Amino acid sequence: MASNRFFDRADPIAFAGTDSRDPLAFRFYDKDREVMGRRMEDQLRFAVCYWHSFTWPGGDPFGGETFNRPWMHGSDALALARDKADVAFDMFRLLDVPFFTFHDVDVAPEGASLKESNDNLKAITDIFAKKMETEKVRLLWGTANLFSNRRYMAGAATNPDPDVFTYAVGQVKAALDATHALNGANYVCWGGREGYETLLNTDMGRELDQLGRFLSMLVDYKHKIGFEGPILIEPKPKEPTKHQYDFDAATVFGFLQKYDLVADVKLNLEQNHAILAGHSFEHEVKTAYAAGLFGSLDINRGDDLLGWDTDQFAMNVGEMALVFHEMLRHGGFTTGGLNFDAKIRRQSIDPDDLLIAHVASMDACARGLLAAEAMLKDEALTGPLNARYAGWDQPEAKAILAGERTLEQVAERALGLDPQPRSGRQEYLEGVVNRYV
């Protein structure tokens, strides 16, 4: 299979301008355009994910494989993994993205033992390293899949069986070693099974302590080997479990404080997970910044009519503009980026569908970024926001917040006041946003 191209085109997809109608050309994503002092490519830091793009076969709960990818069928699992790597790096080149991401079992087959699995991962890691010597793409983050294998049906770090916990530690060590070997910028933990299906068989306090210890060991090992990037937790409230311990950004903040992990662990946030938690994407990003935990983003979306994680490509320009507005206010990404944790629909079976989906979403992100830049330069949202809280910049208000006034002193001052309500101007601000998107 490796000798035959999966994609028909050979030239990377290029910027063609807004007049273009070519679905395989960028209309808004001009990687060299400067946005708030950085090239657009450096602001958005796009990453292609390995699992949905090259591992998911197109199935759903009611139907099986639809994609019939050539690297998914055969008896030599490592040979198929090498073929898959060839296709993946070809797509990274065609999209001209700066980053990619992977789970351990996406890139290398699981063996009959943990040692065999780790050896397989090492073999593919060596192939990646060789390819990366001559390719532009770099690793945004790696992670371990601690949810698909049946051994993890009751969790990994939170499993009632310490042998499963131990196995998961071995798997994570190998995944972090691979990430470090490839100079990954971050390492992600997603607790898909770290939660419960029923409280009737769950000791929540014990399981949270196990999870805290697991992450503490990971942080200690990160420092031991000199891995400089942050550990990222990806919050999600439910699905596949009824309740996951990393429910949302605020819940993870409390967990990290309890187990003294705030300094080393940040957040990888996703729109679809925010919606499942009853929040907006913007809410989760603002919460992360307020807690000092913002790290990276999965850039996808859910379906408003479906109550599960549909992982569709992000296309809502207005939604992304507000998220990027918050990011740009805080200086943009450091080690993080925009990871396409998104999959094409199971009816999108042509090879070009995989490219088109990424191109369309990259353009939508670029439009959102440009809108965010314009709003910031015009102070369209920050101006009214600062005016609303201007009273807190006055000396007396500052003294209250600084702890320089007692309750009695503040209450005494209140006797001379008659404050009147002021309009929140919500509809005005919604109209302002619509001018830009």
Automatic annotation (TrEMBL):
<keyword id="KW-0413">Isomerase</keyword>
<protein>
    <submittedName>
        <fullName>Xylose isomerase</fullName>
        <ecNumber>5.3.1.5</ecNumber>
    </submittedName>
</protein>
